[in-house]
């Protein structure tokens, strides 16, 4: 696998540390990404998203959703049940940590757990100062011409 040196990017930019870190993580991350639990990312609206994670066998009290340092961290911890004897165990209930890097101004608006799915709703709230705005162009100003009275002396 190729490796890219991003140190010139760090030396030549100011304030883009997060973007450079994101690129660095994406380029140096292992190809063997964890596939458990499976998930979907949907774009609901122009500024609304939903992450749906298949968490069969987990209760709401065994799941955690946390925003930390620009990342969404979803965890699942299932207490082992020693009272059951399985002949076949096909439903995976192993512990997991799933991380999603969030763009600036993306906030979690809610989470729900139903029918074995954990749904996390996100919205991008761009501040008014960063939104594009139209600037009105004024026409030539009409100057009032004052008549100068001449006084004969």
TrEMBL record:
Entries under Gene3D superfamilies matching the protein: 2.60.40.790
Domain SHSP stretches: 30-140
Keywords: Stress response
Cleaved signal peptide residues: none
Protein transport among keywords: no
InterPro entries associated with the record: A-crystallin/Hsp20_dom, ACD_IbpA/B, HSP20-like_chaperone
PANTHER family (UniProt xref): PTHR47062, SMALL HEAT SHOCK PROTEIN IBPA
Family under the similarity heading: Belongs to the small heat shock protein (HSP20) family.
The name this protein goes by in its record: Heat-shock protein
The organism of origin for this protein: Thioclava dalianensis
Lineage, opening ranks: Bacteria, Pseudomonadati, Pseudomonadota, Alphaproteobacteria, Rhodobacterales
């Amino acid at each position: 696998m190729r490796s890219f040196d991003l140190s010139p990017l760090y030396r030549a930019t100011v304030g883009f540390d997060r973007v450079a870190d994101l690129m660095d993580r994406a380029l140096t991350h292992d190809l063997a990404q964890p596939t458990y639990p499976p998930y979907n990312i949907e774009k609901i609206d122009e500024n609304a998203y939903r992450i749906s994670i298949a968490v069969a066998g987990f209760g709401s009290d065994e799941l955690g959703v946390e925003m930390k340092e620009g990342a969404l961290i979803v965890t699942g911890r299932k207490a082992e049940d020693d009272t059951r004897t399985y002949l076949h165990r096909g439903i995976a209930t192993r512990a997991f940590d799933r991380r999603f890097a969030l763009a600036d101004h993306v906030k979690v608006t809610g989470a729900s757990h139903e029918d074995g799915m954990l749904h996390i709703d996100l919205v991008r709230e761009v501040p008014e100062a960063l939104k594009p705005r139209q600037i009105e162009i004024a026409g030539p100003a009409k100057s009032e011409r004052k008549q100068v009275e001449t006084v004969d002396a």
